[in-house]
Amino acid sequence: MTELRVRRDDLAVCELVEGEPSRERLGEREAQLLVERFSLSANNITYAIKGEELGYWRLFPAPLGWGVIPAWGYARVVGSRSPSLLEGQRVFGLVPMGTRFTVRPAAHPLGFVDASSHRTELARAYNQYLAVGDEASETALVMRPLFVTSVLLDLSLSEEAPDRVILTSASSKTAYGLAHLRSERPAQTIGLTSAGRVAWVESLGLYDAVLAYGDLGDLRPEGSAVLVDFAGDRALVRRVHEQLGETLMRSILVGFTHAQAEANTSSLPGPAPEVFFAPDEIVRRGRELGQRYDAAWERFAAVAERTVRIERVTAGEQLVRLYLALLEGKTDPAAGYVVSLDPRPGD
Fold it and tell me: What are phi and psi of 28, to 5 degrees?
């Protein structure tokens, strides 16, 4: 069974290995799932960069020094000794970049929670699997997990009334999902992106203004502002702080996709940067998130369909190339990547 593993201390080192085989003898109350397909984006690079700190490496254990990056996807139960999960059931949740994984299901009204010992200290949102019937569209598979963070950020930002909201990595799907939500608010939304992506980000029609990173001098300290950083580039965060100074009300760190970015955010002008951790916000928002999310997605679904071009990956070598391109920030922002690694016959 194919599985992609990466070195925890050097994410550019990865290898395809034989992952978990088909298990005829499961332990008591265990179940094995076959990964049908999963989506990949820069968000998965965040999982790798923050794997040790936030526990992402614990989801799917690997040999010492190696890690399996989690991804959001669909899986089907192919073997079960658990009363909480029947063979043939299909679920949505975090899966490995591979073809099979084993869980210890605990019943939940919406599906199940993996109660395996190596996952007990993780955020509930990462251990929960939702029962599904027919799969949603591939665009929804790519966008909906990211859009949850967009909605959470919009809820957080609604507690203030800034004149401007500034989003880095404006071409990222979570960023422009938030820009769509902010279009319903009175504040101006400004996107920051690389020079080569300015035209594409402008074509989305979701930002009031789009600036290249090299044009931050055009970002005037006029009126109150909130910075939402999706890039994880601390040097960029410092430049924005220095440019806006005391007009900056909040500085929110969401993404960590630039693995080599400057880590020091001390002694910055304006507010101290705050880390936004979506699983904690999911718990805090609870019912409010559920009420807001479904209605927000209905309005955003058409935007997602017109902005995302689905690209399918079916071979391990393709997965390696895609992963390295994501790590280097060289993927097409218009593409939505869906991976389906078919198991070999007899596995």
Answer: -60, 130
